Amino acid sequence: MPHCEAALYDALLAANWEPRAQLRRVCVLGNSFRRYALQAEDNRSGPAAKAKLVLEAERFAWEERVDEANDVDEEDGFARAFNETSWHFFEVDDHVDQRKEISSEALSFEKIITVTL
Q1: Based on C-alpha coordinates, what's the Rg of the chain?
Q2: How many whole angstroms from its chain centre is CA 54?
Q3: How many angstroms separate the CA atoms of 99 and 64, rounded?
Q4: Three-state secondary structure string covering the chain
Q5: Cα–Cα distance between 27 and 33 in angstroms, integer?
Q6: How many Cβ atoms sit within 10 Å of the Cβ of residue 26?
Q7: What's the rounded Cα separation, in Å, for the pair 34 and 63?
Q8: Which of 41, 83, 86, 106 is most exposed by smallest CB count within 10 Å?
Q9: pTM of the full predicted structure?
Q10: 79-104 pLDDT, tens digit each
Q11: How many CA atoms lie within 13 Å of 75's alpha carbon, on the beta-carbon side?
């Protein structure tokens, strides 16, 4: 999902948030969740700040940055296009109720429909 907006990652997570074990079966190749967390800190009203599940998942996701060779030519637009791409794997604790951590608004079905249309 490289280059997708934070809201689409949020919808993907919402669709797989429950049951808890479901997230263990999901891996995401896409924009860095860590980067979204930093953007949310910088701009609390921006799109990244509204992606509540991405921000929550960033706390328990294992993120592995896709790094070509550490010698990316800054002039190469193709190489730069994927500079924030990471693999995300989710380490979910069966004994933690994830829904208690997230507002019902973040998990709403209407939000998923709105994002995917």
Answers
A1: 15
A2: 4
A3: 26
A4: CCCCCHHHHHHHHHHHCCCHHHHHHCEEEEECHHHHHHHHHHCCCCHHHHCHHHHHHCCCEEEEECCCCCCCCCCCHHHHHCCCEEEEEECCCCCCCHHHHCCCCCCCHHHHHHHHC
A5: 12
A6: 17
A7: 8
A8: 41
A9: 0.71
A10: 666 778 999 999 887 655 554 554 54
A11: 0
The CA distance from 40 to 93, in Å, is: 25
Six-digit token pair at 43?
């701009």
Please name the residue that has the structure tokens 């509204």.
50
Give which of 98, 93, 70, 101 is closest to 83, Cα–Cα.
Answer: 70
Give the neighbor-by-neighbor strand order of the sheet with 27-31: 27-31, 85-90, 61-65
Token duo for residue 20: 């808890």
Kindly list the domain boundaries of the chain, sorted by start residue.
Answer: 6-101
Task: In whole angstroms, give the CA distance from residue 65 to residue 38.
Answer: 15
pLDDT (tens digit, 9 = 90+) per residue, 2-17?
Answer: 888 999 999 999 999 9
